[in-house]
Records
---
Amino acid sequence: MKLITAVIKPFKLDDLREALQEIGVQGMTVTEVRGFGRQKGHTELYRGAEYVVDFLPKTKVEIAVDDSLMDLAIETISQAAKTDKVGDGKIFVTTLDEVVRIRTGETGASAV
């Protein structure tokens, strides 16, 4: 089992959700986050005063998938979240040692 964490632009979330549903991903956790990378921040003007926005709004999506679905899920996320502009985001993959469904006690892939 793998945990795929993707940090994407917020307006790409619906596209990503639909694309992941089409390949059989049954659930995801979504968090609104803020951060920066190479994109850095930017300067905005508010009521005549300039201020720097260091942390940009992003959306963090976490999905747990079976190893056999990992490559397809990564490709799907890459295509659905891509805008060809700086700040499209990142995908992180970590190994899950164990998954347990609280309600039934199921473990492993059947718990997802």
---
Amino acid sequence: MNSHPSILERSLYRLLAPRHALPQFLILGAQRSGTTRLYKWMMKHPQILPGTEKEIHFFDRNFQNGVPWYQLHFPARKRMGDNRITGEATPYYLFHPRAPERIRHVLPDVKMIALLRNPVERAVSHYFREAHMGEEDRPIGEALRLEESRLKPELEKMQNDEFYFSEIHHRKSYKTRGIYVEQLKRYFDLFERRQLLVLTSEEFFSDPENALHVIFSFLEVNAGFVPPRIVAQNLSGRAPGVPESVYEYLQKYFEPHNEALFQLLGRNLGWNARK
């Protein structure tokens, strides 16, 4: 579907949308934390139907297209029945400053899943993804230290124009995306805590069967279902070629933010332990 629908297309969307379901769950992120694999395994559940794609980006870059446009990305109501649900996974939702209010307006009762990775490892992984895609040409240490000056003008534009989409905010927010406490607070301020399930990537990858059991219970589908061919994975290990000084810088940067997150969640996720 066209990301910038015409007047005629909008009319058609309004006509067709009521035949489709709206999502009962959203995977909010975080980026580079395993959301693609989580979504893939969840879609094997017989009670969970996929949307047209994993990442629809409605509540961040396509909100101006309207709810009917969004609704048409999900299965027809006649396919849903009484015991099926549908949802999507757009990792930018956790980080985008306007996403929580938009979600609250459109889906006030939705259930949300946040998958959080150690922010030091997430930042390094994020950097290398952008470098591999040709979006980042600075060395990692320089890119990390430039982040605040890069993001500041973009945040001002986003504040002044609710539909402004910033590629820089989306792509070069290596450290800021790992300040999970600020992002989760925005959701906790607008939704009841029972609507948001927070897991870590380490929990998910080390014991995916148990993590999926927790998620399926949270979504109130058959929690005994185990997707075929799920394999545990060890996420630990540092990226080759990254100077130790970069890891030391990131560890120090994230320590106070992690402590605030642990207090918010009421549990220590172990990310501040020195390696």
---
Amino acid sequence: MDKHWYQKQLRILQTVMREPDMAGYDARSVVDYLLKADCNAIVVNAGGIVDFFPIEGKLRRSNPFGNGIDVLQSLTEQCHKHGIAVIARVDFRGVEKERYEL
């Protein structure tokens, strides 16, 4: 029986994206780097202080550099084509008190 991704030994790369990193984000280049580094998982920002994917609603904090780009979706699609797991993290440190409490 095949093991689930989390039951295998992981070689994880963690990125910390800044708001301007969304402009011109190239998921294929990221995957190329992961493959060269022999990584099979990546930890990436999904949201928290700023959202890295389009979202509507009261808690939305759109990235001003996003232009409707869904970085999380494009990275996940590219990674999954190569068997790379994507672990999305949400960063609440530094978030506004109102948003944190909601």
